[in-house]
Amino acid sequence: MRVVTLKINDQEMSGREDEDILHVAREHGIEIPTLCQLDGISEWGGCRLCLVEIEGSAKLSAACVTKVSEGMVVNTESERLSGYRKTIVEMLFTEGNHICSVCVSNNNCELQDMSSDLKIDHISLPYRYPARTVDASHDLFIFDANRCILCTRCVRVCDQVEGAHTWDIAGRGIQSQLISDLHQPWGESDSCTSCGKCVEACPTGALFEKGKAAGEMVKDPKFLVYLADMKAEKS
Amino acid sequence: MHWLVIGFGNDLAGDDGFGIAVAEQIKKRAASDLAIQITTEVISTRILAPELLESISIADAVIFIDASAALNDGRPQEIDLQSLIGSELEYGSSIFLSHHCNPLALMQLNHTLYNRNPPAWLYALGSCHFGLFENLSDTVAALVPEVAAQIIDKINKHTFCEQA
Amino acid sequence: MSKIITIDPVTRIEGHSKITIHLDDQGEVEEALFHVTQLRGFEKFAEGRPFHEMPSLMARICGICPVSHLVASAKACDMLMSVRIPPTAVKLRRIINLAQIAQSHALSFFYLSSPDLLLGMDSNPATRNIVGVARANPELARNGVHLRALGQEIIEILGGKKIHPGWVVPGGVSHALTAENRDYILKKLPEAIQIAERTIKWFSAELEKFSEEIAVFANFPGLFMSLIGNHDQLETYDGRLRLADDQGLVVADLPAEDYKTIVAEAINPHSYLKSPYYKPQGYPAGLYRVGPLARLHLAKTCGTPRADQALTEFKKLDHKSAFHYHLARLIEILYAFEMIEQLLSDDMILDSHVRAHAAANAHEGFGISEAPRGTLMHHYKIDDNGLITYADLIIATGHNSLAMNKGITQAAKHYIKNDKLTDGILNRIEAVIRTFDPCLSCSTHAVGQMALDIQLIDMGGTVLDRVKR
Lengths: 235, 164, 469
What we know:
Chain A is an alpha+beta fold.
């Protein structure tokens, strides 16, 4: 594998040519915000928070799905980027119904942390207040669509790690929604193995364990990296 | 000498969170600074309620930190509250509602109820930007470490001068 | 020509409201109405939510008595889970509920009502506040500060937060009490008990000054309702529901969760506050009172030695008058701290088993407890999956709605003799409301001086007289 040299935020660094900008930056201590990215499952490039500027290109690129190349000059922080990132997160808040104070994931939520990191303390866009439902038909878990940001981490972990592919996205655009099997209640799903990986992978309080009260749902999806490593060793 | 530092304001209302930010900074400092840790109790609170008198009444010196819409000065002002105690002008009903009150009213009550009149200062910052947001504006945020350091200096100076 | 006098907003109470006093052609008071001008809508937006969220969601109804809602809501959830929660969890919930009652009563008596009681109903409104009290009687003010601070501190120690603690959860409480915290609270209780006892003694001696107020402050026959213990003792967490008339004749005694068989709610066009009434007597004849006055009226004993002594004296008074809510509050503060001491001294209070876990096992749950202001009722229904399909709450202040209206009408008829309005007269009418300590669930207060604007308006809308402060 070839090693390339590049510049991120004026810092010289090198990485393998099959690596993406996000991981090379992280290895060198440069954090780029992400929500849909999760180590241990494939990259998707859907949340657009990791957008970066690449010299010579007018468009912005998602750092998680853009491979590094020789002589690349990348900028991860600018007024333009932080403006976009803020708007993206604001849109996530207005698109669903997020009420932190009574949420099971309060103080343990990646969306909450992200808005704090981006210093979002005010939503300038109008709220949509969609009428969404809660699916509590599963014996162990609950899916609250109000808190879903459509990051598809659950879809990918279920498909790629558990191999069940219970979850998927139905509809397009603003109609997009997370469904289990062929849009039937989660509790009636034939494919779900009740493994709970989707719950651990979910960045918000959209998927959680039954019986948790406000602020009690703590997730730790780090085990996915070990699973991925073990799989790689075997093959 | 027992010091009490009270930073107050609404940290959901922009620069109104200044007092809380300074108090938190002093708390952090106290974690590593034994002199401050021993001499000083730091309270950060959204509102000043009469229950604070329980702490105030045992303090030898009190420092309040606040952001004020009434002041125009962008530099923190140090107001000596002790000298104002006993003056009648501030002792009306308007300063005392059922759930919250202002620093001078608290010090007045401390005097009336516990017969104590310790040195007390209010660090008030004007020219603030209030609104429905959680972060301090850049200019006000820049003043936080400065005011925290000033207060720590004051505590140290008094404490060590007194010992000497 | 008939006229309307408006007091808007009512001051020194929790929340936003106004009073209108309606005069007939002769200028005599026809009736007075207490309007609650705020609307919340919690019952609606609980629908579709997992029931485990209810305690923290319902606690947001109120920043003043979140603990009361936590307790009632968690009890309703226990019933949905059909679990018997660990005995230590029951005791810990009792303690936090008692601390809430003590701190709330201290606020009501010392901060909100003591200016009227100590300085007089006609004293200068500019100093008729806690500052004025501090000058006239520093010890009383110090005591108020101390009792409220201790109640709040106990809540903070147990729940981790003064306001909106998340500690009380369906099935019990989220974590056990530490020995260090128990000892800390125990050390502080004797002084609080002494203070409460001294204040009762002082206030009892003051009562003779208020014979006129006692006679006309919502002093009428009628029913009283509260929870009651197995041995007819004062009970704030659990127990049966009892209604008795002013003579002590029991008209209803039933399991608390059957309250809907005897209580119905009427809706008034003048207020967002619903008016519950005792069904067999109909509306509005089925008026009843709840809260400290009702609890002490119904209880044969408190179950703690000092509060029991005070209760014996209390029973000798004409305690159907709402004015005696004040003394009842003081006695309950004493009871609360004594009872917390008893509960903390229990061998099992530090037990680590404080939470039962279960899924939804029943479709309907009731949680009934005594909040500072009276019986608080949460009623939920869920579907097979544990999602709320129905929520219905009766808040303590609501029960008193009819009694408050009748009470201010009685006082207005007594004090308003002609068109002439004085601050002292209107303060007395407000003071009737203050005896009930209504909590109108305000989450925010506007900063600045609370205005009192009383207008005398004729039928054509012309302002005849106006008093402002």
